[in-house]
Amino acid sequence: MSLIPVALGTTDPRGLVLITPEAFGDMEAWHATVAELRREAPVLRVEAEGWPPFWAITRHADVFTVSRRSDVFWNTERSAPGPDFQYDMFGALGIDLPRTLVQLHGTVHDQYRQVTSDWFRPAAVKGLQPAIDEIADEFADKLLEFDGHCDFATDLAVPFTLRVIMSIFGVPQSDEPLMLSLTQGLFGAADPEYLGDFADPLELVTSNIRKFEAYFDELTADRQQHPTDDLASVIANGRIDGQPLGEIERLWYYIIVATAGHDTTSFALSGGLEQLLRHPDQLRALEDDPSLLGNAAQEILRWTSPVRSFFRWAQEDFELGGVTIPKGDVVLTSYPSANRDEDVFADPMHFDIGRPDADKLLSFGLGIHYCLGAQVARREIRTLLGKVFERVATIDFDGEPQWSAAHFVSGVKHLPITYTLR
Ligand code: HEM
Hints:
Distance between the termini: 50 Å
Low-confidence stretches: none
Strand content: 5-15%
Mean pLDDT: 92
Bound molecules: protoporphyrin IX containing FE
Radius of gyration: 21 Å
Number of strands: 14
Structural class: alpha+beta
């Protein structure tokens, strides 16, 4: 089944770049197109075959408004942008539609978010720093074994971010390969590299959901009988109004933390290093002064913006950027576009770890659905890059980087590097 959307009627074909997996494989061209949209049609109606019609929101101010006005723009079971058949397939295969935090709204969302929100408070996340340091040291030490050449994405960024999230969950290292193939198959399913033996991305997605279900059912049973202080125990034993979490909600709670927790951050890390290699002066500045890593991580997140968009449903007519969005319509919030808005960021197409406006990034969204793991992700980025720079004397490209072709979460999936040690 083709995942290349086709424009309907008089739809401006430029709007399709927001939902076309392959378009995210060439981010320079992608950004050139959305820069035009920001200038000429910042609230653009897009009709594509097999997709719900939606309004593409590309300016920072409008993505900001949609995210803040959650009273008007609701998250629903179709918050993750995807073609109709992806959702129809769930029904056909007898699989319930996802019900993670990003698909919930209102009181139910607040209640479910509260189950883990203590875990993700800044003070609690600060307490994870020694564990993140230890894991980062372990992976940065692999540079000593790789003999001057490796793929930073697959050898360091992916396994590092996976290990951090698995250690937060409290699951054994031996389960990491399984978790990796499951999450890559869920988010990057359109990318042929992750298809494996499956002929169709949907088969892969549904098969993965079933495997997640089996894995997490076992984990829940274990943590209900032997609770520890890990996040899996918090989710397994979570209660709302005195009742255990619904089975579907509990499954998807695990899945969102497992998936949102590592692909996103590893894409930021690989895309960040890719940019630093293109800007050796900035790389040197970071090596000389690790205190710059905080702002550098923000700039990396602005630049890479690995979560590409979300859908929101308008509950009433609403004027946005001079256009009336009718009640019942869908809007698509484009985070990478908002993060390059020339009205907000000075010289936005320039990567600059010292930029004073990096904090205005929208990569983690905003408002009631603001990314729970934002503090964890920032710490992971600062820590791993810092540990790598402590060890290398020189570092450079060792081949062309490659981007994954996926419209929801994507970024640099291969980053061959060559380096010498200090
Ligand atoms: C670079 C890394 C990451 C990026 C770019 C990112 C981005 C996002 C975005 C855009 C949202 C939706 C925000 C909105 O709708 O306003 C979100 C939600 C979420 N993220 Fe992240 N995320 C990252 C890392 C993480 C990590 C490390 C975790 C977990 C440890 C995590 C867990 C979540 C959860 C649970 C939600 C749902 C929150 C809700 O709906 O209430 N994310 N993230």
